[in-house]
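User:
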Amino acid sequence: MSTTLLQELQGELRRLYIAGSDLAADDFRLKRIEPKFAQLGERAPVFKKLAEGIAELTGPSEAEARASKLQDVSLLLNSVLSTQGATAVEGLKEEKLQESGLTDLTTAHSYRQLAEVQNALSTSGGGRYEIVTTAHRDGLFRDLRLFPFAMKALNDPYAELADYAVRYILPSYGPVIVPYLLAGLDIQGGREQERRLEVIRKLGVDAEDARTLNLLVKAAEEGSDKVRAAAIACLGSHPDFEDRLIEWSLDKKKPVREGALAALAVRNSEAARDRLYEAFTGKDAMPAAEAVGAAPAAEMLERLIPLYAEKLRQEYTGEEDRKSKDKLWSELEPFTVAFRYAKHPELARLYLDLGANQSDYPALGRLDYAERFRTLSQAAGYLKESDTEEALEVLYALEEQSPDFLPYAFHATKSRRSPAELYDRYAGSGRGLLRTAVSKKAQAVQKKLIETLHGEIHVYENYVRRRLPQETIETQWDPRWLDWVIDRNDLELVSGLAAPGHPKLLPYLKKQIENTSNSYYEHYIFIALDAGGYDEETKYELLMSWMENKDWKKVYSIYHGETERLTQIPARFAAGAADRLEPLIVHMRFENLKETMQEVVHSLRKKAASDE
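Assistant: Predicted structure:
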């Protein structure tokens, strides 16, 4: 049977564990699902037992009896959930576990921990991506029971989630899963089959694994175009297939040529490089560039860097029309693709000279702004990671040329100068003390500086944006930045740079609470309060003011962070908080808001009573 109803009940019971079993009395949510379990109970006694338990939980009883019943229903529910659906890896029996190579996986996690992930990878809808990525970060996919769901993710309707499985989840299991990826391979299939092969390419294939290599060759010869390309790309590290790869790189079908060129870039033999260079200077320039960009071997770069310099220095002798400019960019763009992740001393020298002496490279002057910026920004991106004064000076020259290069110079300055020197250069006297920039150039510089600060202050971990650690903020950022962002009323940056002892911080946050009625700014305000090191009473009063200042006729939801903070109010403030929150309920337009707030108020009153 579907576990949807069981998981719904599990969610309601979890809510009661947090809010308190007393709230189960006459709980309309439990009463709504009780008849559904009663109906199932006509066919299975266990569901009848669950229905009876729900009825007793919502009916009249003593507090202690209700708490005991909550435990009983939860225990029975978890027993039912643990028996629903297959929990073993398909095709993998217990007695063959030692042969599977998956012996480092465990089954130590509880069903409660796994159920949410299993549900996320078995359904559709919002919020699933965050559930899965968090589970991977927390190591839940090391549980054997999630392996089939990791495989299932390859065909997830949400492409970003499927791609995340390809990039992170499945490769984390190691080469032992290659047989499972090939076992279900449909060589005439589409994107899912292509993803299976992409994982195999990441993991690699043992040269002694003849069975796997034969299957890949079969897919390369007989599969659909996408499958052929992906299978061919898996063969680059095996010298026995070099002649075949060169032959496939000349195939009439573009996807097949792309896969072969990708494999030849990995192969990196003299013959492979010759074929790549031929493709790069011919009709397959972009596929060859993508291949080199994914596997930038030094020997190949040494052939392409002089060619790039030659193209950039090329003088134009004909009529300057749109067609000739398009042709020029079609010749230059493959180099920007091929050098995306490249590191080479000759490339560093070229980028230094390109940034410092642009007039020596006439081709730059004939490009559109976007094309020119893409060319120079790639040079700037390379130079910002170069730990030299020469690179820094070139970045400063580019920054003066256009504010669009400011992020590169800022990042390089931050890594080579003290926090005070960084502030003085970008926000000190003459550059950033005024609250509003006057000239158009000053406005553009200030706008780009604010964008850059956003990128530097917050970091991404597994696609989730996070604030830098407090220690990093206090040791690597001049405290004057906090004044600067407060003056410019950027709440997100204020939350990122907040630190204890700053005199302007609390008045600024109080003003934000007074002037904000219907937004999601609570997240930033209370992050700043936490970082500011304020006492519990101060944070409590501001939280209450935040809730009281909301226009509840317009607010559509209470955010998770708000309910979490409200239920965590210290016991000595709980009664007062309940008294202040309860009158807000009558102003709420939406029933779900009223229900949530009622639960919060009940939880606070219970906390206050237990503290007496």
